[in-house]
Specification:
- By secondary structure, the chain is an alpha/beta fold.
- It contains 16 helices and 20 strands.
- It folds into two domains: 5-67 and 154-411, L-arginine/glycine Amidinotransferase, Chain A; 71-150, Pentein (Orthogonal Bundle), CATH 1.10.3930.
- The strands form six sheets. A five-stranded mixed sheet has the order 9-10-11-14-15, sandwiched between helices.
- The two termini are 15 Å apart.
- GO terms for molecular function: arginine deiminase activity.
- Keywords: Arginine metabolism, Cytoplasm, Hydrolase.
- InterPro entries: Arg_deiminase.
- Belongs to the arginine deiminase family.
Length: 415
């Protein structure tokens, strides 16, 4: 097996990238939170404590935990990587031609740890003026002292979305919302230049710097195994993005089937993994309010191999209500076990909003979930699934659960 390989959703999880909350979440205010895609302000110290317990639960399950900020610091030690990060952080179209060169120069003189903090945590005008005199720039002069010169990346907390590994390759994703677009830069630099990744061959399924409107986000991508991938077409992932990633997977022979589900385009259904995740080889926990979805099975028209340009797609659509059958066929199964707790409409909606369906499998039939979804957790246990609860009182207010907060880089396949 490749040193970087994710062969399933539920096989033994061996290595994962996470990001511990930091300065970037302190930038959230009642005025900025919506632009930064948060519904509420998190108590950062408590969120950090909860995230530490999440990391500890992963390590107790035998998972090697890699921290994104540490990976970025180590990546910045490579001169080419540092130039790449600086070039994609400071742009005269954003900062103006008068300020951009100075900002880049100031940032280039920071040590690797301080620069990594700036890239993820952002920079205010007040903080900039502690490093240099104010340049003659209309852009900067028109800013108040605590305005952000460099926007923070608080959604790096949800490590799954901007980067997701699918079999023997990775998608560095083109993100749908402006607040998340620069997250791709962090992962792109890390995968190109960090020694842990640069010395290992792997395929590229998406390019967050060039794919533009063909967006795919990792919360919509489930590596269900048997050469199949399940992708939700949500408010964040487009059909164009699904077709492009399918062609790349088929061209390399890494997958031979993609099942696409047409999700409601709503905040509460942000990604597929907010309403449906896999917990063992044939079982999914699913939100009761999901309803009947249209689905499409994409296969290569003439086998796999060659270049993506040479691959032609065969697309079969399924009547609403047949999505489960399409997934089962992709897995080579006669049927699926769909786990949906019986509860009233209001309770089900609250649990789904609190990420009751966002379970992270660490092994077949063993999942990490938030403690704030007791009904879903109890139902999983009654169904024979081992549930490892972690606190989500603060983390859960960010609208992302354990699966959202993890980017597996090494996971076993299942038979």
């Amino acid at each position: 097996m490749n040193d970087l390989f994710v062969g399933s959703e539920v096989g033994q999880l061996r290595q994962v990238i996470v990001h511990r909350p930091g300065t970037e979440l302190l930038r959230l205010t009642p005025e900025t939170k919506e632009d930064l895609l948060f519904d509420d302000l998190l108590w950062v110290r408590r969120a950090q404590e909860e995230h530490d317990q999440f990391s500890a639960a992963l390590e107790s399950a035998g998972v090697e935990v890699l921290h994104l900020d540490a990976l970025l610091r180590e990546t910045l030690a490579v001169p080419e990587a540092k130039d790449f990060i600086l070039d994609h952080t400071f742009d005269e179209r954003l900062h103006g031609p008068a300020a951009a060169p100075l900002l880049r120069q100031v940032a280039s003189e920071l040590d690797d740890a301080a620069l990594a903090e700036l890239v993820i945590g952002g920079l205010t005008k007040r903080e900039l003026l502690e490093l240099t005199d104010e340049p003659r720039s209309i852009v900067l002069h028109s800013m108040a002292a605590d305005d952000l010169v460099v926007a923070p990346l608080p959604n790096h907390l949800f490590a799954r979305d901007a980067s997701c590994w699918v079999y023997d390759g990775v998608a560095v994703n083109s993100m749908q919302k402006p607040a998340r677009m620069r997250e791709a830069v962090t992962y792109e630099a890390t995968y190109r230049w960090h020694p842990r990744f640069a010395e290992v061959p792997f395929h590229r399924w998406a390019d967050g710097l060039t794919d533009a409107q063909a967006t795919v986000e990792g919360g919509d991508v489930l590596v269900i195994g048997n050469g199949a991938v399940l992708i939700g077409m949500s408010e964040r992932t487009t059909p164009q993005g699904v077709e492009r990633i399918a062609k790349r997977l088929f061209a390399s022979g890494s997958a031979d089937r993609v099942v696409a589900l047409d999700l409601p385009k709503a905040r509460s259904f942000m990604h597929l993994d907010t309403v449906m995740t896999m917990v063992d080889e044939r079982s999914f926990i699913e939100y009761a309010g999901l309803g009947d979805l249209a689905s499409y099975t994409i296969t290569p028209r003439s086998g796999t191999g060659g270049s993506p340009q040479e691959v032609e797609l065969n697309i079969a659509d399924h009547d609403p209500g047949h999505a489960h059958r399409a997934i089962a066929e992709a897995l080579g199964l006669h049927g699926l076990r769909i786990l949906t707790a019986e509860q009233d409409l209001h309770s089900a909606a609250r649990e789904q909003w609190d990420d009751g369906c966002n379970a992270l499998a660490v092994a077949p039939g063993a999942v990490i979930t938030y403690d704030r979804t007791p009904t879903s957790n109890a139902f999983l246990r009654e169904s024979g699934v081992e549930v490892i609860e972690v606190p989500g009182g603060e983390l859960g207010r960010g609208r992302g659960g354990p699966r959202c907060m993890s980017c597996p880089t090494l996971r076993d396949p299942v038979s």
